[in-house]
Structure formats: structure tokens, C-alpha cells
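Dear V.,

Thank you for sending over the compound details. I've combined the ligand you provided, NAP, with the protein sequence from our construct and run the structure prediction for the complex. I'm sharing the raw inputs here so there's no ambiguity about protonation or stereochemistry in the SMILES, which I know was a concern on your side last time.
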Amino acid sequence: MTAVFANKVVLVTGASGGIGRAVALAFAKEGARLVLAARSADRLAQVEREVRSVGGEALSAPTDVTSPEAVTALVKAATDRFGRIDVLVNNAGIGKVGGVEEESFADDVRDTLQASLFGMVDVTQRVLPLMRRQRTGAIVNMSSVMGRKAFARFGSYAIVMHAVSAFSDSLRQEVAGSGIRVSVIHPGLTATELLREAKEDEMPPPFRHMTPLSPDDVGRAVVAAVRHGKRRVVLPRMAGALLLGEALSPRIGDLIAAALAKRPIARALGMSDGRTYHEVLRRQAGTTGTTAG
Ligand SMILES: NC(=O)c1ccc[n+]([C@@H]2O[C@H](COP(=O)([O-])OP(=O)(O)OC[C@H]3O[C@@H](n4cnc5c(N)ncnc54)[C@H](OP(=O)(O)O)[C@@H]3O)[C@@H](O)[C@H]2O)c1
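Below is the predicted structure of the protein with NAP bound, written out as C-alpha cells.
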């Protein structure tokens, strides 16, 4: 542990599980005080206990980020308890799988925009005046590798993750010089319940053989991003090559995505150790007793 985050107040949305829980625990291990937000009060209470068990202090604030009243109440609860917010991690979100021709596609875009983008915009707008008064703060927005390169059957999710990336880029330049820093994180496939509804044989080809990151990998990356003031973090490292290929030409990006769909290539590029997303989730469910996708 270093002193950088000792007693800092870190608000994490989507903290009831997956990446948000891991982010909260990673900051708690650094001595930060946590404000935990998500809809499920039971799961938040469990994460609060875990934060305490690593010696941290936490306030659970059951919140639906799509409700402006709930977001106002969240920020009030945080400031009533701690008086400040040093780090905001905008992580709450959902993800749907489905092709553009499917009837539900437009609804999937709307629902994902609501939870993963407008929730983020609202929380950010409520926290920014406080950070401006403090003249210091860090905002971390959770995007995805798909915030720079869309994959087939992930259009609704990729649209919103691109929007999160653009929102972060605009915000970063708007607050430049104010003492507030903005980071955007682009993780690859991660072993959480985000895609719990996706059937194994419906996973988009590049994901079929990919071994997911652990949420703890992403949690540590978020802490490091704030510590070092990183503007953009892509993980795992190989995903950076995919995004570079895509930036050079969509043809190269598509070729890399198609190559990743082949197990030996995914292995050779270090994106697969043989375990798939569903296998990892089944194993996790076996150890925690929760249901996996
Ligand atoms: N898993 C991946 O492969 C992956 C990869 C890249 C980026 N991401 C991003 O990482 C973030 C976290 O996802 P995850 O993978 O950890 O999935 P997850 O395990 O499903 O967690 C999502 C979190 O968001 C919360 N949430 C959802 N809707 C909410 C709402 N309206 N208000 C408040 N909280 C809400 C959920 O809690 P409640 O249900 O209790 O509200 C939960 O805590 C998402 O933004 C996702 O896009 C995930």
C-alpha cells in the first residue's frame, strides 16, 4: 500500500459485483474510503462487508443511475458522510448481444444508452461541481475494447462504449487545468456476469476461444490509471495491437478480429489459455454458489 489513496473518498458505481466490486476492493486495499452504488442493496451490503474485511471504510448507497433523483441522493449521501469525493469511477452498465437485424436491436441500444451512458453523464454532472470546488479529483469512465473496435453481434454495446470513449475525451479537455483528471478504461472480455444471457454458441467469434480477464486485473488497472493520471488504458496489452490495426484500417481490424476467432491464433497471441468465458464463469459459480451465464 502507498499513501496516495489513504483516506481518499472513492465513489464506484456498479459496485455490487464484477468489475465494480474489484475496483472497490482494490482502492480499499490502498486505504481509500468507499461509496458503493448499484441497484441491489443485498449485493452492495456483501461488498461493503468485503471492503471492511480488508480494513477499509464503506458506505453502501443503493442507487439506480438512470434515476436523476437517486443520483442526487447518492451524491448527497456521499458528501454528508465524507464531505468530498476524490475519485469517481463510472462503471455501472449493462451489455446485450444481438445482430443489427434482430427486432430488439433498437431497444437494446436505448436500454444500454440509458444505463451505461446517461447514468454516467448524470453522475458526472452532479460530482463535477464538487470536484471543481475542491480543485482536485479524478474521474474514471469504464468503456471497453469495443469502445474503439466493434464486433459483429455487439453493435448495441459497441455504439454505447464508443460514446463513453467520446464523452471521456471531451470531458478530459473541458476540465484540463482544473486539477481534475479523466481516464477511460478499455478492458477486453472480463469474467463477470455482464454477458450472463449470451449462450455459448452465440458468443461473437472473436470471443469464442478467448480467456477472459479477471475483474481483479481491471480493478488494479483502474487504481494504476488514477495513480499515474493515464488518459486511456487498454487491457490486455494485445488488445492494443487490435486497436492499432483498426486505427490504421478497418480491413486490418477485421482481419485481426477474424484471426482471434481461431483458437490456435488466439492462443499464440496470448488471448487464450484454453479456458473460455463460459468455462471460467462455470468454475466461479462452482466456488461461489452463484449462477453463471
Ligand atoms: N465484462 C466484460 O467483458 C467487460 C469488458 C469491458 C468493459 N466492461 C464494462 O464494465 C462495467 C461493469 O460491468 P461488469 O462486467 O462488471 O458486469 P456486471 O458484473 O454485470 O456488473 C454491472 C454492474 O453495474 C450495475 N448496474 C447495472 N445497471 C445499473 C443501474 N441502472 N444503476 C446502477 N447500477 C447498475 C450492476 O449492479 P445492480 O444490478 O445491482 O444494479 C453491477 O454492479 C460495464 O460498464 C461494462 O460495460 C465489461
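A first observation: Confidence is low (pLDDT under 50) at residues 289-293.

Warm regards,
I. M.
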